[in-house]
Each structure stands twice: as C-alpha cells, then as structure tokens.
Design goal:
The protein contains 17 helices and 8 strands. It has 443 residues and is α+β, with helices and mostly antiparallel strands. The chain has a 5-stranded mixed sheet with strand order 1-5-3-8-7, covered by helices on one side. A 3-stranded antiparallel sheet has the order 4-2-6. The longest helix is centred in the N-terminal third of the chain and has 36 residues. The chain is flat, with a radius of gyration of 29 Å.
C-alpha cells in the first residue's frame, strides 16, 4: 500500500493524468452523440439551444471554435509555464510540485484539451452522419463546451494570480504538512523506548542502492519478519539519503537474516532521486523553511512572509507536540511486534523548523523577536522536560544570535525581554502537575 501511495502521489502531481482521463471521456461523449439517432433540422429548430443549421455552416462554426480553442489552450499553457517559473524562482523549485498537483489547474488544462479533441472528432464527421448530415446535438454540445472554456479561463487566471501570493502558498504547504502529521504521527502506536534498540549481535542489512528513502512497506516487513521469526529495526526513515552500503536495517536474531529476508527488506524500501511527502514528515517543514529563507534573501527581503511562515510552523509544531514522538511499531497478524521505526525527535523537529530561519534573520530584529514569541506560544504544549529542552535551547540560540548581530540597543533589549518571557512560560508549564495526554492514556 505504501508503494501504491507513492506511485499515486507521483501521478497526482503530474499535469497529464487528469487531462488524459478527461480527453478519453470527451472522445467517448463525441462518439456516443455521433452514433445516436440523428435529429432532423426541423426538430432541432424547435429548441433554440440546439444548433439547427446545415452542414456547411456547421463546418465553419466548428472550424472557428476549434481554432479559438487551440489559441486559448496555448494561452493557458503559456500562463502555466510563467507561473511555474515564478514559483520556482520566488518560492523554491520544490514548490513546483505543489502547483502541478493542484487539481483545479489539472481540471482546467484537461477541459481545454478535452474540448479540442471533442471538436476534432465531431468536425471530421460533418456530412457523414445519418439524417441531414448534421449532428445537431453534438455541435450544440461542442458550442457549449467552448463557451464554458471562456469562463473557465477567467477563473484559471484568477486562481493562478492568487496561487503565487506568499500567504496562499504558505497556507497550502501548511495544510499538506498537517495532513502528513495526521497520517504519519497521530496513527502511530507509541511503545517504551527501551525496546527500540537492536539486540546484541543483530545482523545489519544494507539497501544496496543510492538514493532517498521515499517509502517503506511496513506491513510487508512485518509479514516477512513473521515468516522468518525475527524482529526488524529500521536505522533509516523516509527522507534519509542512503548509500548502497551501510548499516541501514538490523535483524535479530542474526540467524534469521538469510537471502530471502534480505531481498524482501530491500524490496519493501523504495528509493528514489527526490524526497516525497508520502511518509516524510520533514518534507513539509523544509518547504515552509525554504519559503522563509527566500523571503529573507537580500534580493527579496520580505520580512512579513517569513513571519507568516513562523506562525504556520508554530501551528504545526503544536500539533506535533500533542503526540508522543516515540518509536512506532508494526505488528504481524498474531499481534507480535515485528518492526521498529524511530520517528524524528523533538529536538530534530524544532531545529529543522527554526535554525535556518534564525540564521537567515540574524540581522533582522523583527524575525528574532517573533521567533522568541513563537516559542512562548508553544510553551503550553511543552509539559515535559523532553519537549521543553529543545525550546529552551532555541531561546538561548536566538538570544546569542541577537546579541552578536543586533546593533540597536532598544531592539536588543526587546529581544531579551521576549526571551525572558518565553522562558518564564516554559518554566511555569514544567512546574505544573502533568496530566497524561489521550495518546499516552491509550498506551
């Protein structure tokens, strides 16, 4: 299922899949209307919405519609290329995937391509059909599709204009990140950390190829471990880059690590040339950070976009802090734990979210102050030492960066005050009696 989900993500992010389906449907519709019983022109004239002209006028009409549709389709493709270029330059090349995976964009392109194919099929049959040689209903439907494309073009231009706005791009990436959190973290079963390490003398298996870990078939690994009566520890997680050789997967007992199990392990781990959001929790965080870094670059210098990114990252971190990030396990059909996979820790998540933004905005007091305020807002989610420590460390980094690079004393005093306030919030949360979260109660 994970491999299928990965393949579906690639298909979903392509610009050809939805247009292909719509084109097939358009050709099928044209054939259906052309092969149905023809309608005489006298009967068609009774319905003012239906075309009631002769074959020559129908050819001229369809020829004009076809020429106009090809021109508008060229315009749509040109606009799309321009927007993708702007997105790659301003938001980052990895954001192009989000624009290509936008289903309204795919539907609009598919509608134009499907309308052109429909008109071609109908146009070539004018004069060869039964009755008076004019498929009145088919010509009327083609006229309606062409009119619809004109209004859809206005919607498309409006949507593309909004899609390259920073706030909308940040919102879309954040929504994708929250869906990933719900799928990858909230559904995991936490276990005790003391059983998450390979046993003594475990056999290590390399994956045999270079590339990024795009997906892992946990169910398949659990089934194969059950057949071999073994336990598997994954030393890599989706998003990691691995070499052909290395200590990637541990098997215990080592006697169970035969050629069949090694082949199954390598087949369950999908490697590729790029990272994907299918199982990679860090993917969405890095996309948001990349938007902030480009906004803080000297060529753009858009502080407000970086502030929007920090706010959305804070929301995502709050969602992550609500769930214990302990190693996830996967059981076989008998209910025995067969696969262990360590998730990202709180320190790695916080540093991934804030380190590069802090470094890029080290000379901008507003960015550093907002980072300190964001950590203060996260204090209510940090009820344990494990969750609070990365936030304490980040406050120390922010204050040290400000003291080194901020020249104006008033700005530095304000930053110190915000850091003290955030630290006070964290200390107050740690001092409160801690109630178990719902996920911990289930454990």
């Amino acid at each position: 299922m994970e491999r299928l989900r990965l393949y579906w993500s690639f298909i979903r992010a392509s610009l050809w899949f939805v247009p292909l389906l719509m084109s097939i449907a358009a050709v099928a519709l044209a054939v259906l209307l052309l092969t149905s019983t023809g309608m005489p022109s006298d009967s068609a004239a009774e319905f003012w919405l239906l075309y009631s002209g002769d074959a020559d006028n129908a050819r001229r009409l369809l020829g004009a519609l076809l020429s106009g549709m090809i021109t508008m389709s060229s315009l749509v493709v040109s606009i799309t290329v321009v927007v993708l270029t702007l997105a790659a330059g301003q938001l980052g090349p990895r954001m192009v995937r989000n624009f290509m995976g936008d289903w309204p964009t795919q539907v609009v392109i598919g509608l134009f391509v499907a309308t052109i194919l429909y008109l071609l099929v109908v146009f070539r049959t004018i004069g060869d059909t039964t009755g008076d040689g004019v498929p009145h209903l088919a010509v009327s439907v083609g006229t309606g599709l062409s009119a619809l494309c004109m209004f859809v073009l206005l919607f498309y231009v409006h949507r593309l204009a909004r899609s390259i706005m920073y706030d909308n791009a940040v919102r879309d990436v954040t929504a994708q990140l929250e869906r990933s959190i719900a799928r990858l973290v909230d559904s995991k079963e936490p276990v005790a950390a003391d059983i998450a390490a390979p046993g003594e003398g475990a056999a290590w298996v390399c994956l045999g190829r270079h590339g990024y870990v795009q997906a892992i078939g946990f169910d398949r690994l659990a089934d194969e471990a059950r057949r071999a009566d073994a336990v598997i520890w994954l030393g890599v997680r989706p998003g990691d880059y691995v070499l052909a050789r290395g200590r990637h997967v541990a098997v215990h007992p080592p006697s169970a690590c035969n050629d069949t199990l090694i082949s199954a392990i390598r087949g369950a781990v999908v490697l590729g040339s790029e990272r994907t959001p299918v199982q990679d929790l860090e993917f969405g965080i890095r996309q948001l950070v990349e938007i902030a870094l480009r906004a803080l670059s000297p060529g753009i210098n858009d502080v407000f976009t970086s502030i929007a990114v920090i706010d959305n990252l804070t929301s995502a971190l709050a969602r992550l802090y609500e769930t214990p990030l302990e190693p996830s396990v996967h059981k076989d059909a008998d209910g025995r734990v067969r696969v262990h996979c360590a998730l990202m820790g709180y320190e790695a998540i916080v540093r991934t979210a804030f380190d590069q933004i802090r470094h890029a905005g080290r000379t901008t007091p507003f960015v550093l102050i907002h980072l300190a305020e964001a950590i203060g807002r996260l204090a209510s989610y940090a009820g344990t030492e494990e969750r609070a420590k990365p936030l304490f460390d980040q406050l120390d980094f922010i204050r040290a960066s400000g003291e080194r690079h901020i020249e104006l004393a008033a700005d530095l005093d304000l930053l110190r005050a915000r850091c003290r306030t955030a630290r006070g919030y964290l200390e107050q949360e740690l001092a409160k009696p801690r109630a178990a979260m719902p996920s911990e109660q289930r454990t």
